[in-house]
Structures are given as C-alpha cells and as structure tokens.
Amino acid sequence: MADPTGLPAVHRGEGTGQPPEVDTSRASIARVYDAFLGGKDNFASDRVVYDAIIEIAPQCAEVAKANRRWLNRTISYLSAYVGIDQYLDLGAGLPTVENTHQTAQRFTPHAVVVYVDNDPAVNAYGRALLEENDRTHFVTADLTDPAVLLAHPTVTRALEFDRPMALIQCATLHHVDDEANPAGIMRHYIDTLPSGSYIALTHWWDPADGSEGSALAHELERRWRTSSMGTGRYRTREEILSFFDGLELLEPGLVELDQWWPAGPPVRKLSLVEHLILGGVGRKP
Ligand SMILES: C[S@@+](CC[C@H](N)C(=O)[O-])C[C@H]1O[C@@H](n2cnc3c(N)ncnc32)[C@H](O)[C@@H]1O
C-alpha cells in the first residue's frame, strides 16, 4: 500500500532514532499554521481545521502573517539594537520565508539559534532547513517540560547560560492547556535564564468584555479544541501577563501585534480576528 504521508522512510523516523512518524489522519498545529501561511507542508486533515476557522474568520491567515512579522521585528530589535546573540526558539514551527536565525544572523553573524519543536513534521521537514549552518540547531523536545528541555545536550552545548539570551514563545502557549500550568512553565524558564535575558511572547487574546471580539474568540476556541488538533486557548490580558511575572515589560507593553513598534502606519482597517492576539517582550532584571 502506498505510504499516505508521501515521505521517504528516513523522514518517518524509521531507523533514525527520531520521533514518531507524521500522523496525517489528525491535524497538527504546526501543519495547520503552515496552511495559514500559504505553505505546502500540510495535509487534508489540516485543511479541514483551516476551513472550519476560515468559515467564521476569513482573515485568520492575516493573524499568522502578522505573528511572523512581529517575530521578525522582535528578533531584529534584539539582535541589532540590544546585542543578543543567543536564541532559544520554542515551538519554532515549520521553516518559512524568514526564520529566526536568518534575521538574527543578518545583524549578528555569530548569533546562535536553537530551535525546539515536538512535531514530527517539523522534525522531518524542518531540521535540514533550520540547521542551515553550524550556529543553528534543532532539538526535538516538549516545551511544557522545561527541566528536560533545558538539560538537553544540544541546548546546554550551544547556549551559554551565564550570558543573556532570548527565549521565544511565539504563538505557542495558547496550545498549552490550563491543566499543564503555562504560568508555572514560564516561571521555570524565567528562573533559569540569566539576568539581562529577554522573553518574546505572542498569544491569542480574549478581550473578555462581552464584545463581538470576545464572542468570536469563544467560538474560535471551541472550533480549535473540538477539531482533530484538539488545542487552542484564547486567554485574557491578565492571564497572558502572568507569563511575564518577574520580568520588566518593554514599551509599549503587551499590545496588539501591529502596535508593537510597527513598521509604519496601518494600510487598512483590521478585521475582528486580527485583534485577537497580543505580543510583548520582557527583560529579566
Ligand atoms: C502556531 S505554531 C508557531 C510557530 C512559530 N513559533 C511562529 O510563531 O511562527 C506553534 C508551534 O508550536 C509547536 N508546539 C506546540 N506545542 C508544543 C510542545 N508542547 N512542545 C514543543 N513544541 C510545541 C507546534 O508544533 C508548532 O510548530
């Protein structure tokens, strides 16, 4: 029978000591996100979720694109202006047009980037592209288990924990359920980072004010969670702020993505769904 993944055996992890094969029968957030970004590394099960979301929020692809623009602006700022030269990019996702190491190394050629993801498709497709040079590394690990992740030999070899670094949690924690204690997970990372380190984080937002936007956040959350992907949380501003506990939040704070040091004035009015994500950057004193 034909292999439904279409991937060569090595990409399915056979005999490689790599994580399990890509399961195309259920959607995965890495591949659904790829679909929203217009990528090709997604399957029918992912596009079912994509369609269910687009049905009520036709501009949802713009959220993914704004999130990538925010990530690029943040990395540019940290590498060009702050001088950060070590990056731990958690839940890095499938490679796309401008990845963290490309931005960081453009400004700081010696910058080291460690990408982490637990999705088999990212492992299969992403590793080769993301490990583009000897200063970029890919680790398969679960970001909800900071103790194990931070002790991974690639992480401890590549990053110097006695010097400031940046930890990236871009569009990741809204896929971590409340039961997994995302604030506790962040506390562990923040406690471990050296003083002078930065955390860059974006997260789906529920304005929780009885507005049309809040109602949309609830319905989107219901659709994500009842899909075969099974995760997705729109949290309140206070809940998201709790992930920065112990950090100094940089100006302009935790704000809608295009309000965080935008490249210029808006060129159009945003649709409702584009307001439902916030981003912020914190510095450990
Ligand atoms: C929406 S994508 C965001 C990708 C990228 N950070 C960005 O902002 O463009 C979320 C990524 O987080 C990864 N992810 C989700 N839960 C994870 C976990 N527990 N451990 C590691 N990676 C995880 C997914 O596999 C996916 O690649």
Automatic annotation (TrEMBL):
Keywords annotated in UniProt: Methyltransferase, Transferase
Pfam hit, one: Methyltransf_19
GO molecular function: methyltransferase activity
Residue ranges, annotated region (Disordered): 1-24
Protein's organism: Kibdelosporangium banguiense
Protein's name according to its UniProt entry: SAM-dependent methyltransferase
GO biological process: methylation
